[in-house]
Amino acid sequence: MKLSSPRAARLCVSLFLGLIGLGMVPGLKAGPLGLVLPTGNDAIFSEDPSKFYMYTDRNFEGVRSQPWTAGRYGLVRDQKRTDQGIVFTKFHEGVDIRPVKRDAAGEPLDDVFAIADGKVAYVSTTPSRSNYGNYVVIEHDCGEGGFYSLYAHLKSSMVAAGQPVKARQRIGRLGYTGEGINRERAHVHLEVTLMLSSRFQDWYNRHFTTTNWHGNFNGFNLCGVDVSGLYHSHRDDPNIKLSDFVTRDAPYFRVVVANRGTPDLLKRYPWLGKDMEKAAGNSSWEFTFNNVGVPLSIAPDTRSVTYPAVSWVRDSKVNHAFNTLARLSGTGSKATLTASGSRYIQLVSGAF
Fold it and tell me: pLDDT digit string (tens) for 96-143?
């Protein structure tokens, strides 16, 4: 290509570097993650993100709306009016991505692609067995312990468990399988997750009598990180590691758990370890979490506890239950674990 001016040359270089950042240049991988988008919809980086996220139908205090913001990651659903104002109390663990192609009848035509190189870990083809509908889980190993991408509500899948896949390889067709989704709201629900326990079935059997159809790839055992934030961070710094992204998040609460050996989670993700030189004969472990329960660090601790206990919580005038998926209760700088919070800590820490 002939460049007619220095300015044109600079524009070309900027475009090329931008494409690298998005993982869109054939034959190139951007850093250790090498992330690409899972469909042809790239409006996540546009000035109008409403073209990227699928809306939900909302009825709050008699006012109906269809906010696209409810398709984002985080506490973005189920508004509640409190003395401190309106808060959102329902956690959305991934992002809902709109289709960009439909046929004359409105059926979505978008293919769904793997977001990075990896291996198919699990494929669920019975929609009634999960709110995810048909879904695929892919394991990615960037040298920091496996992380998992999950693609839900698929019309169909085109891969099998154990199959290696490359970034941008087609794995399925966008659809609307799963509870509460119709053709108009067809989307792919994408999560980027950490696996909480390799003994998930043992934990599940303690608390549920229903069948776990999905083994370790049950959604309860996959802890979703802020996937949209990860994409933006990856665009800004293609060399970012998942560990960097997770551990720099803001802590919301800490829990001390009796030492029953090195936690399974720490074995799988050693980068969660903090002050590990003190881990000789420590009485307990202190787990640090963000507000939605993503583990940020695990550190040896000297306190002796019989049961898991909150050791610190960020000060909040809003009841901590609203900020933590009802895993904590209390206000201000004091909090206790709820029953669901205790179950969650059991799963994360292996204390079961």
Answer: 999 999 999 999 999 999 999 999 999 999 999 999 999 999 999 999
- SS percent in the chain: helix, strand, coil, step 5: 25, 30, 45
Kindly report, residue by residue over 20-48, the tens digit of the pLDDT: 444 443 333 458 899 999 999 999 999 99
Residue 27 structure tokens: 């034959």
| 3-class secondary structure, 54 | coil
Query: Distance between CA atoms of 221 and 200, rounded to whole angstroms?
Result: 7
pLDDT per residue as tens digits for the range 2-25: 444 555 544 444 444 444 444 443
The token pair at 307 is 């049961």
Least Cα distance to 88 among 118, 43, 58, 117 occurs for 58
- Cα pseudo-dihedral 28, 32, 33, 36, rounded to 10: -10
Please count the other Cβ atoms lying within 10 Å of the Cβ belonging to residue 336: 13
Angstrom distance (rounded) from CA 114 to CA 169: 6
| Alpha carbons 290 and 341: distance in angstroms, whole number | 13
Q: Which of 231, 189, 195, 235 is nearest to 214 (CA)?
A: 195
Distance CA 14, CA 27 (A): 18
**Of 69, 156, 144, nearest in space to 112 by CA:** 156
Q: What is the pTM of this model?
A: 0.90
Enter the tokens of residue 94: 């991934």
